[in-house]
Amino acid sequence: MVRLEKIEKSYGNTRVLKGINLEIEKGDFISIMGSSGSGKSTLLNLIGAMDRPERGNIFIDGEEISSYTDEQLTIYRRGKVGFIFQFFNLLPNITAFENIQMPLLLNGIEDEAKVFEYIKRVGLNGKEDAYPYQLSGGEQQRVAIARALIHDPEIILADEPTGSLDSENGRVIMDLIKELTDKTGKTVILVTHEGYIAEYAQKRVRIKDGVIL
Ligand SMILES: Nc1ncnc2c1ncn2[C@@H]1O[C@H](COP(=O)(O)OP(=O)(O)O)[C@@H](O)[C@H]1O
Ligand SMILES: [Mg+2]
To answer: Cα–Cα distance between 48 and 83 in angstroms, integer?
Structure first.
């Protein structure tokens, strides 16, 4: 499903990823653990085609995406990938409903019933007209989870999804991510620096000094 071969990435003179090799099967729930600054977000952004590696290959379903044009990468990102971030990254000036609807609109799909279905799935009934600032952190992350799943992507990329929540809310959010992705056989790649969050995954690897251990 996802295969990384000898991925290298630097920022200026700082070599962050020094030859990452990793293979992830369809339906896997994998955690990548590493300390702050170890390159976890950099790696996730490469898998999600938010950025390109300097060297190495990224295969998605056997296709090498480093050779994709920017347009092909946009189609891949919009269609096959759902992102969940530490700080939710909701659009502040639109409602919960509209945030969740956004991936459908970007893919040319008009389906309000589906938006309501996902609002229900993440337990946000009655909050659809709230703006992000009117929601708690946990509720904002529920919006983000619905937004990440609504267009039925194959791959979910979660970058410290509980990093700005207390541990109780963090567990609730992890339970929700696990429940909603297990059921549908999604491939989940979770990065975290917290051991108890990594334990939600069936497969666990560590990133250290720019390589996967
Ligand atoms: N856009 C950027 N420009 C310059 N340096 C960056 C950039 N993004 C990340 N870095 C640096 O790369 C290293 C890895 O960052 P990051 O992938 O965010 O780590 P993590 O997510 O594990 O905390 C850090 O030293 C960070 O300062
Ligand atoms: Mg990070």
So the answer is: 8
